[in-house]
Specification:
6 copies of one chain form a homohexamer. The first copy, chain A, has 7 helices and 5 strands. By secondary structure, chain A is α/β, with parallel strands linked by helices. Chain A is globular, with a radius of gyration of 16 Å.
Chain lengths: 171, 171, 171, 171, 171, 171
C-alpha cells in the first residue's frame, strides 16, 4: 500500500495553536506531513517579522511535541507567477498526494493542476491568527498563550517582539 | 550551556556514502545538524538530475538511519551573488554556530563573514562523488553500492536513471 | 513606401468592446498592428484572472473577426523598471513605428525615448472596462454583452468566472 | 470534435528550411499550431544574434507562405528552473494538446508532466541548422539558400549579418 | 589611525535641504561619506519620478557645494529580501564603519548585523520631505526653495516636473 | 556651450595602468567622465575576485591621482538581456553624450541605440590586462607594477590576493 503524504502550507508569522489544531487533524488522515513555509524570502517587516530559518525552528519544535508521524519542513519562496506556483511547490517538496488548505488561491491552483484539496476548519480563527498575535505583540498584550511554549521560546531567543516593534516603526 | 548546531551544505546529486562519512563525523561534535541542499532550483540536467524535493527525501531517509541527533534539511537556492550568499543561507536556515565545508568558496565566504569553518576529509573521494555516480548511471555500471539503500530507493521510485539518460541526450 | 506598423498595449483582463473600438480606429491608419499583452506574468488574481495564453487566444480570435489587416499578439511581462520598459517592449515585438496608448506612463516613456504617441479615445469607458466586467462576473450580472462572443467563449471554456470567484475568495 | 492544437518550440536563430520541413509535417496532423520562440530574452550574442521580435517576424512571415492553418507565435523566456518550464510554457501559450520536439530535455519535461511528445525527424540536420547558418554568415559563405527568402529579408533589414560579426568580435 | 567612513542612505526623490542638514552634521564626525541612492531601480512613478542617474547628479552637485570631505555616491537597487539587504549594501559600497539612518528598518537590519547606527534629527521634517516637494510640484506651488539651486537645475534640465505630472496621470 | 560627458565601462578586476592610459586619453576630449563598474554583482570568483565596492574605491582613488576633471563612478549590474543593456546603463548613470569602448558588444549595442562610440587603443594590452594580473597574483609573480600604488593598497587592505587563491581553489 502506498504511503499518503499530506501537504500543508502557511506563512507561520508566527506558528500558533490554530495551525496546531489543523495539523493534528491532518495527522489523523495521512502517513507523513510536508509543511511548507510560505513567503520564505520575507522577514523583518510588520506582517512578516520572522525569517524562514526562525520559522523552520518554530514549526519543527512545535511538531516534535504535538504529532508523532514523520514530517518535513520546507521553506518555499514566493514565485510571483501564480500559474507556476504548484510546480514550484512540488519541485522543492518531497512528493505529496493530498493537499490541505483553506486559502482560496492555493485551493484553485491545485485544483487546476488536477490535485484535490481538503479545506480544514481552523480553530477559533479570530484569536488564533498571525495578525492578532502580531497586534498583541505591538500592543504589549498577552500573545504567549496563543502559541506553543517552544514557539514563544524561539521568538524570545531571537528578540522577536523588539524586532517587530522596530520594523513597525513603533516604540 | 548553549546548543552547538553545525551547518553542512552539498548539492547531493545524489546523496552518497561520502556525504555519510562526513556527516557521521560532524555528528560526533555537535548537538544538531542543519543540512543545506545547495542549488535547490536546479534539476533535470546532466549534472543536477534530481529536484530539491527528491534530494530532501534522500537526505532525510539516509540520516534517519545513520545519525541519532536532531537534523534539519533545508533547500537553498543559488543567489548568483557570492557576497550575499552567507546572509542568504543564514536567513533560511535555523541559526547555526559551526560550519563544515571543503568547498573553497564556501570556506572563504564564511570566513569573511567572521565564521570559522572546519574542513572535514571526505572518504575515498574519487569513488564517492556525485560525478562518478552519475557517470556510472549513464554507463550502466554499478552505482547502487555507492549510496545507501534508501537513496537508491528514492532514485528508483522517481525513475531517476532514465531521467538522467533523457536529459543527457544519451540512450 | 515603408510599411506603418502600429503598437497597442493592454492587459486585456478580459478583451472587450472598448479595446475593439480603439483597434478598429487604429486599423484605419496603419498597415499592420502589434498587440502587446501587458503584465503577461500575472494570472489567477482578482485583477488579473486570465493567463497570458488565454488572453492571446481572446485577442487573436477577436481580431480575426473585426480587422482585416495583419496583426501580431505578443505577451509582454512586466519588467519592474520603468526606465527599461520601452527597450523591453521593442525587443520582443516586431519593429513598430507608431504607438497608440492612453496610459500616461506608457505615453511618457515612449516620448522620452523619442517616439511620438497617439492617444485614442476609448468608447464608453465607464462600461467597457476590465474592472466593470470583472465586477459583473463576481456579482452574477450580465458581462457577456461587453465582450465579443468569441471572448466569452474562451472565458467559458477555461471556467473563467468560477476561477475569478475562487481567487477573489468570494463564493 | 475537439480541435487539435500542436506545440513546437525552437530558438530560431534564425528560422530555416529545417524548421519548415518539421512544421509542414506537423501541419498535416493538427488543426492549429503554436510556435514557441525559445530563449526569447537572448539577443546580440554569437549564438543568439536576433531579438525575440525579429524572430517573431521571421517565423510569422515564413509560416504565412508555407502553411495554411491558423498559428500563434509566442516568445518564451527561459525560466532557469527546469522543473517549472512546462507550467511556464503552458501559461503563456494558448492551450495545446500535442507537443512536437526532438530536444531530449523538452521531451522529458513534458513526459513527466503527463503530456506525450512526438519527435519528428528534421530534414538534413547537418546543413539546416542555426549553428551552420551562423558559421556561414561569419565566413562570408552562402547562407541565404538555407532559409526562406522572407527570412533573409528580415535579416537584411535588421543588418543581421553585420550584427553577428560585431557581437562575435570578428571583422 | 584608521579613517572613519560614514554611510547614509536615502531615496532622494529629490535631494533637498533636509538631507543637506543631516549630511552636514555627519560631515563633522567622519573622514569620508558614502551616500547610497536607495531604490535605484525605480523611476517614472509618482513617488519615484527620478532615475538613479539623475539622483546621482543631484547629490553629487549638491555635496560639491556643501561639504568639503571626500564622498562616494552609490546607486543601490532594492533586493526584496530584508535579511540580505545589509550584505547587499556593503558589497557595492566602499567599506564603511559608521551608519547614519532614521529609517527604523535600516536601523534594525544594521543592528542585527552587529553595526551600530546613529539616528540624526532631520531639520523641519514636515516641509523638507520628498513627499511635500512632489506634492508642491504637482500643485504648481513653490518647491524650488526646498532644494539647493543645483538640484532645481538638474530637475529642470530633465523636464522633471512635467514628467511627474505625466506619470501621475494629472495635467 | 553644453558640457561633454564621456562614458567608459570596464570590470576593473582590478583597475590597472591599461585603464589609466585610456582614461587619460578620454580626459583630453571631454568635460566630465562617467566610469561604469561592469558586472557589479560579481565577486569572490576566479575571474571576478573584487566586490563592486572595492572596485569603486580602486577607481576613485586612482582617478583622483591621474585626472583633474570631475568624474562619477557607478556600479552597473549585468542585466542578462543585451537588448536592454543600453537603457539600463543610461538609467543609472548621469546623462552622457560620448561613449568610449573597445568591447565589440558594447560598441554594437550603443550603435543600434543611435549613439556613436569611440574605440580607444589600450596601452600594451597583453600585459596590462586583468587576466594577466590575476594570473600573476596566483603564480606569486610581480603584479604590483601593473597597477597604481593606491590600487595595490586597496587590494592589500582587503586581503585580495589571499581571497583570489581561496576562491580559485589553489593554495
Amino acid at each position: 500500500m502506498e504511503k499518503i503524504r499530506g501537504f500543508y502550507i502557511g506563512r507561520f508569522q508566527p506558528y500558533h495553536y490554530g495551525h496546531e489544531s489543523v495539523i493534528k487533524h491532518i495527522a489523523e488522515e495521512v502517513d507523513e506531513i510536508v509543511i511548507g513555509i510560505g513567503s520564505a524570502q520575507l522577514s523583518h517587516s510588520p506582517n512578516n517579522p520572522f525569517t524562514a530559518g526562525e520559522r523552520v525552528l518554530m514549526v519543527t519544535h512545535a511538531l516534535e511535541e504535538s504529532v508523532s508521524l514523520p514530517f518535513y519542513v520546507i521553506p518555499i519562496e514566493d514565485i510571483q507567477r501564480n500559474a507556476l506556483w504548484v510546480s514550484h511547490a512540488r519541485s522543492i517538496s518531497p512528493p505529496f498526494n493530498e493537499v490541505y488548505s483553506s486559502n482560496p488561491l492555493v485551493v484553485r491552483l491545485f485544483r487546476e493542476s488536477g490535485t484535490e484539496v481538503i479545506s480544514p476548519e481552523m480553530y477559533e480563527r479570530e484569536n488564533y491568527s498571525g495578525t492578532e498575535i502580531r497586534r498583541r505583540m505591538l500592543a504589549g498584550e498577552d500573545w504567549q498563550s496563543l502559541v506553543p511554549p517552544v514557539v514563544a521560546g524561539v521568538i524570545n531567543e531571537t528578540d522577536g517582539v523588539r524586532r517587530l516593534h522596530d520594523v513597525s516603526g513603533s516604540d
